[in-house]
Amino acid sequence: VNDGAQYDVIVSGAGLAGSAAAIWFGRAGLRVALLERSPDPDHYKRICTHEIQASAVPLVEELGLSDALTEIGTPRRRVAAYVHPFGWIRPEHAPGEADARSNYNVRREKIDPMVRRVAAETPGVDLMLDRRVTGLVRERGRVTGAVARSRSGATTEIRAGLVVGADGRESTVARASERRERRFPNGRFVFWSYFDGVELPFAPEAQTWLLDPDVAYALPTDGGLTLLSTMLSSPRLPEYREDAEGLWRRVWSSLPDGPSLDGVRREGPFLARLDMTLHKRRPAGGGLALVGDAALNTDPMWGWGCGWALETAKALAERTAEALRSGRGLPAALLRYRLWHQARFWSFQSFAAHYAHGRPFTPVQRAVFKAATLDNTAALRLHSFETAYTGFSAIGSPRAMLHTARVCLADALGSAAPATGGSDGLSGRRGPLPPGAPSPADRQADNRVLSS
Ligand SMILES: Cc1cc2nc3c(=O)[nH]c(=O)nc-3n(C[C@H](O)[C@H](O)[C@H](O)COP(=O)(O)OP(=O)(O)OC[C@H]3O[C@@H](n4cnc5c(N)ncnc54)[C@H](O)[C@@H]3O)c2cc1C
User: Fold this and answer.
1) Smallest Cα–Cα separation from 449: which of 378, 383, 374?
2) In angstroms, what is the span from residue 169 Cα to ligand 1's centroid?
3) Which of these, 25, 28, 99, lies nearest to 66 by C-alpha position?
4) Which of 112, 185, 399, 449 is most buried, by CB atoms within 10 Å?
């Protein structure tokens, strides 16, 4: 590539968001320079637990990845959630809808190279490996290009109508553009590994445990492996540093309805993220746009980021492609993207930022979770929010709140079952189940609405 090469779009970062953006811009007939700092075409993000929410599955299909994912044995599952101290949430969808409401779980070492390959093969897209974007080119206060450097020290300057930052949570593009950024502290750390021989009591569903404040999740993934992830509040960091394996065993052997650890083999090291600070940045303006984590990072708690990487990429391409083709109206198109971004994600972001503190659930959140363990309509609404189909209105609209209140009231007036749960290893507030007490699974089976 020569200095001064001209493209319609420059995309910094060929991860999920960047590769997807390049594909959608390329399909819209635009010329795209896709710059990736790694020299390895099979490079992938290691620190990710890679649940792809059901709301993003249609985008995965649109990108043309479904067959390849099926070939490598990528499971599609719904997730059963245990919420302390209320019990299990297992929404039952209408026949025919359940499949559409299932998530993918696939290791990043599989999906990142896959989507990058599709990008490289898309007409109009030039994938350039070993090109770390180091700065932006500006003219009359507007971004008009980017500067990239290779490992050998060679620099390249490229011009384009639009520069897209898809370079992850520490986005160089966002920093170079001096975007306003807000950070949100996270009172938890996470560690996980892959295991063979895990039998989940609620198979084929995946399982998650919200123990308020600690969290664990078991996600079957490609290759017949299961990812077991443990997210604990920060005061437990010394325990992790002293003996990660021991802590893992204590946590997983004490989960209500957890998998048996007999015959389970760890395949690979424990991976961890100890600082999980969240952020959001203004996603567009001045000839520049941000997609994926570069604009917003709410994970790992809810597993939204991979899906949103694809969704933001598509939304940006849809709103700006015509302006880039015609050379007219880009500022208005970027404003539309910015407004869409705000409307789509604010409720998720606020919810995630609040929960990231590691504080216990608020009374309203407790009511929403409790209702979802008791009533299928409430469970379906929560599921719709969790899988990012709908925003907070799914659970926070007056109608939804009224329903929640009714369910909780009926439960309080009726046979208010004793809260159950046991969690020696996690910081749950209850001891082991007393003899004869109903387990969360028993309670689930008794649940008059779910089991009807
Ligand atoms: C512990 C953890 C667990 C998570 N689990 C989940 C989950 O279960 N489900 C989920 O949906 N999300 C999860 N996430 C979030 C998810 O990992 C991110 O939201 C997702 O990777 C965002 O994709 P992206 O393409 O924006 O960024 P990235 O995947 O980070 O890709 C950025 C790309 O840009 C490249 N790059 C960086 N800087 C430059 C530069 N200067 N020049 C050129 N290239 C550059 C990188 O090499 C990389 O290829 C998790 C996150 C963490 C930390």
Assistant:
1) 374
2) 7
3) 99
4) 112
Q: Are 257 and 443 in contact (CB under 8 A)?
A: no
313 CB within 6 A, ligand 1: no
Identity of the residue numbered 139: E
Q: Would the CB of 18 count as within 6 Å of ligand 1?
A: yes
- Residue having the nearest C-alpha atom to atom 13 of ligand 1: 303
Residue 25's pLDDT is 98
Those residues with Cβ within 8 angstroms of residue 242's Cβ, 6 or more apart along the chain or in another chain: none
**Nearest-5° Cα angle at 258, 192 to 185:** 45
Determine contact, residues 129/107, Cβ cutoff 8 Å: no
The segments of the chain whose pLDDT lies below 70 read 1-3, 415-452
Q: What is the pLDDT of residue 360?
A: 80
Residue given tokens 């206060």 in the structure block: 141
Q: Which residue, by CA, sits nearest to atom 49 of ligand 1?
A: 15
DSSP state, residue 222: G
Of 32, 37, 149, 276, best ligand 1 pocket probe by most atoms within 8 Å of the beta carbon: 37
